[in-house]
Amino acid sequence: AQRVTQPEKLLSVFKGAPVELKCNYSYSGSPELFWYVQYSRQRLQLLLRHISRESIKGFTADLNKGETSFHLKKPFAQEEDSAMYYCALRGYSSASKIIFGSGTRLSIRP
Amino acid sequence: EAGVAQSPRYKIIEKRQSVAFWCNPISGHATLYWYQQILGQGPKLLIQFQNNGVVDDSQLPKDRFSAERLKGVDSTLKIQPAKLEDSAVYLCASSPGRAHLNTEAFFGQGTRLTVV
Question: Based on the number of CB atoms within 10 Å of its own CB, is A87 exposed (0-12), middle (13-18) or buried (19 or more)?
């Protein structure tokens, strides 16, 4: 079964502290993994995808196929990082659907 | 480029009434998705179109929900009759739809439905 699990509903850290948002997935095959973010009063938008291997707004995510994880990390949290973060996966065919986790609310304390 | 447009932004109806939502995807995007997002949960896919054909509607409650994508562009999602548990934000998204390329989904701002 295809599934994305985000075990933390809420993560609260102080400004300047490291952040790690956890994501585990279940998929038969090699999916494409994403992190989407929703800032207050804004639409859901892509933050990063694993195939790009890039850092966006200081965030990185490494795909660990052995542990079926795709945790999102940032070494030093900023107040503007406060938002809802959703991990998602998609198969590689053009008809594959995008499945989302339940989301983690990241709150950065000043 | 213009983003995904949805209307209305908000809708309040009584249970057993019907309601329709409209979505205009980004021009040229072949894939269109409708998601239901209940408060405190992640988006759940209801239906996915590839051009004007249905690719996946396995989680669409077909006894009350219907969707169409006329001419492979705009789409409407209808609920008839609505139930209290249909209260949610309905998100429309689109993507270019080519395998391995440009797989990012672009989302609209959603329609918040409240059923009373």
Answer: buried
pLDDT confidence bin for A106, thresholds 50/70/90: very high
Q: Which two tokens stand for residue B99?
A: 């395998």
Distance from CA of B103 to the nearest CA of A (A): 8
**Is the CB of B99 less than 8 angstroms away from the CB of A86?**
no
Residue A74 forms contact with B (CB below 8 Å): no
Q: SS3 of A52, please? A: helix
CA dihedral B112, B25, B3, B57 (to 10 degrees): 50
In tens, the pLDDT along A44-74 reads 999 998 887 788 899 999 899 899 999 999 9
Q: Which residue has the tokens 């409240």?
A: B114
